Prior knowledge:
A seven-stranded mixed β-sheet has the order 2-8-7-6-5-3-4, sandwiched between helices. A three-stranded antiparallel β-sheet has the order 9-10-12. A two-stranded parallel sheet has the order 1-11. By secondary structure, the chain is α/β, with parallel strands linked by helices. The protein is built from 13 helices and 14 strands. The protein has two domains: 140 residues, Aspartate Aminotransferase, domain 1 (Alpha-Beta Complex); 245 residues, Type I PLP-dependent aspartate aminotransferase-like (Major domain) (Aspartate Aminotransferase, domain 2).
Amino acid sequence: xxxxxxxxxxxxxxxxxxxxxxxxxxxxxxxxxxxxxxxxxxxxxxxxxxxxxxxxxxxxxxxxxxxxxxxxxxxxxxxxxxxxxxxxxxxxxxxxxxxxxxxxxxxxxxxxxxxxxxxxxxxxxxxxxxxxxxxxxxxxxxxxxxxxxxxxxxxxxxxxxxxxxxxxxxxxxxxxxxxxxxxxxxxxxxxxxxxxxxxxxxxxxxxxxxxxxxxxxxxxxxxxxxxxxxxxxxxxxxxxxxxxxxxxxxxxxxxxxxxxxxxxxxxxxxxxxxxxxxxxxxxxxxxxxxxxxxxxxxxxxxxxxxxxxxxxxxxxxxxxxxxxxxxxxxxxxxxxxxxxxxxxxxxxxxxxxxxxxxxxxxxxxxxxxxxxxxxxxxxxxxxxxxxxxxxxxxxxxxxxxxxxxxxx
Length: 408
């Protein structure tokens, strides 16, 4: 059965699924079950209410572990990918201090949930190397390898970028780290349950995931801490107060959120092919609609996830594009997590785009639940926008136009 989220009033079609996804009705029903009738504390072991909650938590742990080819004891529940990133990065700091490994490697296009914990450590004696992407928006595996030193504690590379949707070669990077004992962390918030093989490489030690990116509720996620040679990554807790989750994440487990998360992962894996096909159909129609407007695509489209497209229309800033489209589609100017303080995208800047391209960038992201918008209305709105503008010359740099991605 194909689900669609319901419109109760006349609203624009939601095209911001890279920020968060609508909850799957089947997941919602599971959440309500464990919020309402099965409300026991999974830490209570003396009665059936607690035992049933514990059984559901462990079933969800198994589903998540299987999706990453990990063991159930390697899944640590958190509030989401941001907390998972912090636990992975800050949790390794004490080991870095005692072992003398104080070098960190990451990339210039990471989410702030990775960059800020890394910079926090640099203020406390660690050294950070940020590897830039190539003009297509992805990291060259060899560039990551070349940045690693004998004193490198951690390599952290996102699986897919949250602004451009461009996927990084995690398998290749993992292979090139075979001879290094540095821990390899992957922020898979945008890909877990979608790009299934990427996080299954046994050389990936730490994986951050988030439920609300795959149709589960907000407020639940996990850190997968995979054993290497029988040893779990030496993470120290960053919060204290209980023995839950191997002592790494104290607090009563939200069994209703975990139940929904586990089901969402199970459905994502089972329906991955169907979902990807639906997203590709939507992508094809969006590209067809945009063709006449000659957009500048940010990042190589053939390296991008099927449900994300980032582009600018020459001569217009993002707000000028979004305003006439608001009755029809809800889109984003970039990362939803940084819209409180609107700044130029550090991702597009690292890719080499000029200020005009960055200022004009909009991100369109959808999912298999997204109803099809009225493409004719979108095209008409963009034609009116184009007609209202005076021609803008293309700025040339070294004999080449400023755009770095493919043009429509």
